[in-house]
């Protein structure tokens, strides 16, 4: 390919048959390697320094026996804190076929090879206790919440005062919606009036119109429905049929007294 060619849609496959080792390493090792790579890129020397050394050992009496093969890795650069320097590499050959790809900042995509061996990396037995302490420290640090106090300049507390229309806003959280459900009017506790006072109010309502439904009377008097029924059973007749079905009207004897009182007035 030409150097000035646009690499969009092209895949470089010159190294597709090259064997590559894939290794899964702990986070502390990857962090150490990244810091060394950043330091090397910022330095004036162009030669790249090795970050680790892999040692392959086997039993001379059984060179063809895979169980006698052992891989270890030693960190080449300086380590920080209690990071172990030596690790064992457990090799696997039974895995899903994989290939390694790379992409440059110019957008050039290439196949770097196919994975032949896969390794899992872990500290050696003598370093397990130290590595476990390192993992616990990292976990404890991640659980600490860093709280910050910020001073707001030229603020008169406008954002802290409730604005019009903010009271009674429904939360977007579905769990909070159940808690902020509005209270129904029928569920509110009503205070009973004096019986004689309530009877006078009822007579005045029936002067206004002859038939009332229970729901209408509850709204007009703001009294409990059960208490209102007790008064209605004494003063009124309930219409079960006809055009005024489902309503109450005064008994005949109370109608006469109401008519007499209105006539006298």
How many individual helices? 7
The helix/strand series, from N terminus to C terminus, equals: EEHEEEEEHHHHHEEH
Total beta-strand segments: 9
Distance between the termini: 112 Å
Taking all residues together, what is the mean pLDDT? 77
- Helical content class: 25-40%
Shape: rod-shaped
As a percent range, the share of strand residues is: 15-25%
Give me the secondary-structure category.
alpha+beta
What gyration radius follows from the Cα positions, in whole Å?
Answer: 44 Å
- Largest sheet at a glance? 7 strands, mixed
Explain what you see.
This protein is of the alpha+beta class and 265 residues long. Helix content is 32%, strand content 20%. It contains 7 helices and 9 strands, in the order ββαβββββαααααββα. The strands form 2 sheets. Strands 1, 2, 3, 4, 5, 6 and 7 form a 7-stranded mixed sheet that branches. The chain has a two-stranded antiparallel sheet with strand order 8-9. Strand 6 and strand 7 (109-123) form a beta hairpin. The longest helix is centred in the N-terminal third of the chain and has 16 residues, at 27-42. It is rod-shaped, with a radius of gyration of 44 Å. The relative contact order is 0.09. Residues 1-5 have low confidence and may be disordered.
